[in-house]
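Lab meeting notes turned into a lecture example. A postdoc, R.K., suggested we walk through two folding results consecutively so the class can see how the record format repeats. The first protein's sequence and structure tokens come next.
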Amino acid sequence: MTEIYPGESLNISYLSPYLKVLGSNYSNGVNFAIGGSKTLPRDVLFALHVQVQEFLFFKDRSLELINQGQETPIDAEGFQNALYTIDIGQNDINALLSNLPYDQVVAKFPPILAEIKYAVQILYDNGSRNFWIHGTGALGCLPQKLSIPRKNYSYLDQNGCLKTYNRAAVAFNAALGSLCDQLNVELKNATVVYTDLFAIKYDLVASHTKYGFDRPLMTCCGYGGPPYNYDLRRSCQSPNATVCTDGSKFVSWDGVHLTEAANAVAAAALLSSAYSRPKLKFYQFCKA
């Protein structure tokens, strides 16, 4: 959802999902993201490399239609000037942390990063030049993770978030940021912007009162009540789930995703370029 708000700020319609053929309008862009997708393993349905292949098919088909004299929402120049946003890795890290200690988790990062680099390289080789790559969020502040029973509360930091999860997220983002710096050097005439979503989303919890949030670690939609209102056996979609009366007071919607109010704050921070390297504003990639 955080990725939706930049478009809203520019009065651009929501991106149509690639897999939704009927009723889709691709004139403002295409969303190839799939819920729950990961970078690895490659045989997982809709892994990152599959999404890249779907884009290449979409591009080839669009240009083919142009050559046949038909109109398409985007032409060859549009594909080259488009902004390619990549936000992936959180599901990979979560899966690793559920089974491995911290040191072994970090040791698994290089193949994930290599897969992201490969995706950018393939896009670049096919004409893409503008990339906006997001780091992962504050995984240790997700009610989904906090609700897992633990005997030792020393696992929590001063804001009530899981230290190990956030430590892993910070380590991953540091490596991803370095990769983006490397790509900026290696890819001629390309721009690769790295944005630190961890810092943005952790601030929603650490400075929640500044943004008007009362319950930074409790879901708006969930089951079980305080402190997290999250039950691993009952999701927000379950019949017994409860929904808060004022979502603007909550950071988390369902234990994993942000509320609309929190997304608006996060998107404003993303657009400010304060958390980006290099500090390019989102609108600088938009051409009339």
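The second example is placed directly after the first for contrast:
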Amino acid sequence: MKDLKGRNIEYVRISVTDRCNLRCIYCMSREGVNYLPHEDLLSYQEIIRVVHCMTALGLKSVRLTGGEPMARRGCLDLVRMLGEIDGVERISMTTNGILMRGSMLRAVQAGLNALNISVDSLDPVIFSQITRGGDVRDVLASIDEALEAGLKVKINSVPISGCNEEGLEKVAALAQKLPVVVRFIELMPVGYGAMLQYIPADTVKKRIEAFFGPLEPDSQRHGDGPAVYYKPSGFKGSIGFIGAVSHEFCDRCNRVRITPEGLLKLCLNHLKGLDLRELLRSGISDEMLTEHIREAVRNKPANHGFNEPVKDRETRSMNQIGG
């Protein structure tokens, strides 16, 4: 799929639910939100139909997100169905890991290739404060189980000013002893994240270098996303930095999103998109659905506009959009 800027869009992030077993401070309110009724979610069959149409346009990679994707019953059945689609080369999932425990081997058997697991702090108190009740020991156990099952694991960590910056070195050290990629991701000013202060990726990198020494670029590729990767001396894994706010990479964007209720979002920070659910439930043919998707993707915004006024700026919380 090509947009008007010549970008090749071959990656879709599909949020299968807005529900989650945690309440992370940058994702939703302490009280949670009014969850979508089940009938408002895209069914798994509808998701499969959309992905079929998108692979005809060049889609190669699918990531399942939420909310917490494992909070939706049958999520691994969806993984299996996605794996049966010609053209889908890679299936991954972003998760907090807790509900994945005990299911890693089944996930691999279903066709899952990789997991991104969120760890914003290794301090039990701070982790519990950020997640509003989560136990970091459960997440660490999930990481070990994923590695034992043969899954590729990336650890996502969001540095937040005045919150978890004092423990970032300990999170980075997970890549010292484990064959994982630890990625520090700038907090994006969307939803509740707009109420918090992000720490620039360059600042985090300097902090990590002050602790571990100079970071040499990693010669190995770890996916086709925007992260810049480094391989510190003596590390089993790697460290990456994603500067979504301070280092805009929109000219290389290769992705679109689908929200739980079926809105094809062309950019995280823009409200506009294509209502797939309405089209799917109108009796549309696959050929026409494919053309609607093609035309929507062609008009993908040039950039996210985090640092400038945007008329149709996204205001919903991240669990409603898809993390």
